[in-house]
């Protein structure tokens, strides 16, 4: 599959490397292309089956505009709308909307799937290093497009789980906040993820 990753930072590199290793064709949309697998945002998005937003949350409106609105695209949203509020890292837009929904409003003709936002970047590219597949949830409104995103998440080594409609991005962004709080404030370190286990009966 042709995947355009907008932003070649910690997240973009981690998932891009994983998908390239899985046989996908990965191009990075960046502001100053310098490598063979980089181009500007507009051509990267235009030529891709799936466009991944892996930039800071604050850059999302600029990225959507630079990408020409993303009409008809399956868009994977990895961003977390983080802000330091009262000295604590929190969701900048509170719990009554989400980054995923905000992106969908900015790109109304795209199909947005929120996923790959719930763990630290090194785990996004290193899911196969865990003793069992970590879970990664995906929320989106279009079942067909979400299935594509779930397959791509699975290709990174995750147990990819449908988390319902895009409004559930609110849950997934809160889950990211829990991971960040555990990693940075509770001494868990960054080399952990969540797995789903079931009772036999
Ligand atoms: N880091 C994590 O562990 C982690 C985990 C899950 C989700 N997230 C979320 O994922 C997103 C990316 O995080 P990150 O840690 O990868 O950030 P990062 O390392 O700071 O990288 C962000 C990238 O976005 C690029 N960028 C900024 N504005 C852009 C624009 N207008 N057009 C194209 N590229 C642009 C930057 O390019 P320049 O070099 O040109 O500035 C940079 O390469 C954030 O929303 C974050 O909350 C992060």
Which stretches are poorly predicted, pLDDT < 50 over at least 5 residues?
A: none
Q: In one word, what is the shape?
A: globular
Strand segment tally:
10
Radius of gyration: 16 Å
Mean pLDDT: 97
Strand content: 15-25%
CATH architecture grouping: 3-Layer(aba) Sandwich
The N- and C-terminal alpha carbons lie at a distance of 39 Å
Question: Could you state the oligomeric state of the chains shown?
Answer: single chain
Task: Find the CATH topology.
Answer: Rossmann fold
As a percent range, the share of helical residues equals 25-40%
* Ligands, ions, cofactors: NADP nicotinamide-adenine-dinucleotide phosphate
CATH class: Alpha Beta
Main sheet, how many strands, which sense, barrel? 8 strands, mixed
How many independent structural domains? 1
**SSE class:** alpha/beta
Biggest β-sheet: strands ordered side by side in the sheet: 3-2-1-4-5-8-9-10
Order of helices and strands: EHEEHEHEEEHEHEHEH
CATH superfamily: NAD(P)-binding Rossmann-like Domain
Number of helices: 7
Describe it:
The protein has 201 residues and is α/β, with parallel strands linked by helices. It has a single domain (2-185), classed as Rossmann fold, CATH 3.40.50.720. Helices cover 33% and strands 21% of the residues. The protein has helices at 10-21, 41-46, 60-66, 99-106, 121-124, 143-155, 169-185; strands spanning 2-6, 25-29, 38-39, 50-53, 74-77, 82-85, 88-91, 111-114, 135-140, 159-162. The strands form two sheets. Strands 3-2-1-4-5-8-9-10 form an eight-stranded mixed sheet, with helices on both faces. Strands 6-7 form a two-stranded antiparallel sheet. Helix 3 links the parallel strand 4 and strand 5. The chain is globular. The model has no long low-confidence stretch (mean pLDDT 97). It binds NADP nicotinamide-adenine-dinucleotide phosphate (NAP). NADP nicotinamide-adenine-dinucleotide phosphate (NAP) binds next to helix 1 and helix 3.
